[in-house]
């Protein structure tokens, strides 16, 4: 169990996830311990992923869109860096 003062971030890497991103965010916001922030790394989606995300009522949401699909490892490395830069830890 995380300490009460531990900040939790939900980092999601997506590529053409318009059909699943809403369900993913709904599941995360329904958790007993809700994340303090959400970070979505869009790996150059060509569908309506970002349009769907921007319509969702999610607080503390940061979206980073990559210009080209760099692959999941690059995207998660970016998520790690961004999280650490803002005081979040990863388990």
Measured on Cα atoms, how large is the radius of gyration? 13 Å
Sheet with most strands: strand arrangement: 1-2-3
- In what range is the share of β-strand residues? 15-25%
Portion of residues in helices?
25-40%
Tell me how many strands there are: 3
Secondary structural class: alpha/beta
Number of contiguous helices = 3
Mean pLDDT: 87
Number of separate structural domains: 1
> Major β-sheet, in short?
3 strands, parallel
Please give a quick description of this structure:
The chain is of the alpha/beta class and 91 residues long. It is 33% helix and 19% strand.
Q: Would you mind describing this structure in some detail?
A:
Helix content is 33%, strand content 19%. It has 91 residues and is of the alpha/beta class. The protein has one domain (9-22, 34-85). The longest helix has 14 residues, at 72-85. A 3-stranded parallel beta sheet has the order 1-2-3, covered by helices on one side. The termini are close together. It has helices at residues 21-29, 49-55, 72-85; strands spanning 9-14, 37-42, 61-65.
Please write out the topology.
Elements: E1 9-14, H1 21-29, E2 37-42, H2 49-55, E3 61-65, H3 72-85
Parallel strand pairs: 1-2, 2-3
Features:
about 35% helix; single chain; alpha/beta; three-stranded parallel beta sheet; 3 helices; 3 strands; about 90 residues
């Amino acid at each position: 169990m995380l300490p009460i003062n531990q900040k939790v971030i939900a980092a999601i890497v997506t590529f053409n996830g318009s059909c699943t991103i809403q369900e993913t965010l709904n599941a995360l916001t329904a958790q007993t311990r809700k994340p303090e922030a959400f970070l979505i790394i869009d790996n150059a989606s060509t569908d309506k992923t970002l349009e769907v995300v921007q319509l969702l009522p999610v607080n503390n949401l940061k979206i980073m869109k990559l210009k080209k699909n760099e692959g999941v490892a690059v995207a998660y490395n970016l998520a790690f860096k961004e999280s650490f830069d803002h005081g979040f830890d990863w388990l």
